[in-house]
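May I ask you to comment on the folded chain given beneath this request?
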Amino acid sequence: MTRSELYQFKHGDKQWFFTSARKAITHNNITYYPVRGLSRGNIEDADIDKCEVELTFPHPYPLFNDADDSFTQVFLNKIYLESVYFTLIELDAGESLVQFKGRVTQPEFDDRDNTMTLICSTAESFMRRKILTRKFQRTCMNNIYDKFCGLDFNEWSFDVTVTAINGLDVTFAVNPTQVKDEEGNLVFERIPVLDELGQPVLDGLGNPTFEDGDPVMEIKSYAPGWLNRGVLKKDGVFTFIVGNDVNGSIRLYRQHIDLKVGGVVRVAPGCDQSLKMCHEKFNNHKRFGGHPNIPTENPLETQLIK
């Protein structure tokens, strides 16, 4: 068997598998599909802080996975919240070796040469970057649903069915959800337990006993603006919600990949980073990361210090 290179890509829950070989290759029960014209540059590792490689794909070219998800479409819009991870594997005589592992940091399209170039970097290039981590400001610097915010996305989000798409405007219908009691427990229909004669079975106090039946469902309503600055999630990828109008209509920051009419997605409310909304909307003021009481004037310049 000749030496071959295998290319793995992952974006949220979606994965793509390609090879620069002339025929499809199956390795570890995964089929890698050939892409005519796929090539890469040398792996540049001049210093410990930077290691990159450039991948070149023909464009336009049908790059799909087994679920018919378009690989090229991922890079036609700004990637938000989620990255595209890349692994390069060398296969030689049945032995495999991982040559590179990182993520796509920059896509480039060349209409003259009809190519799509992906610049990939390893984790070291990010770990060595000097970035601003925490800021001293009035508003909260946390991103909603991150580890600093502490809110659980699954608890605050809910399922909706997409009914119409017009550019970045998406209309939806809220899906039924199971009712919860005041303590947060799921509510079911109460069905009386009967004995062989059809008589109610009593407990030790002489009261009828019941068992859980079908779940009690409801369709909740949400006020306009509830989803402002929130997020939409589908297939493990998040997209920022710019605004939320009446009658189940939202506007997205960018086009979400493979969002279709009739599809079920999860949406969650957003926050304007203020202490007021953090407290009144989410009751999460103990995790508020801003400093609302910063003085408007420098006391060292406007007050006499004795």
Observations:
- The mean pLDDT is 83.
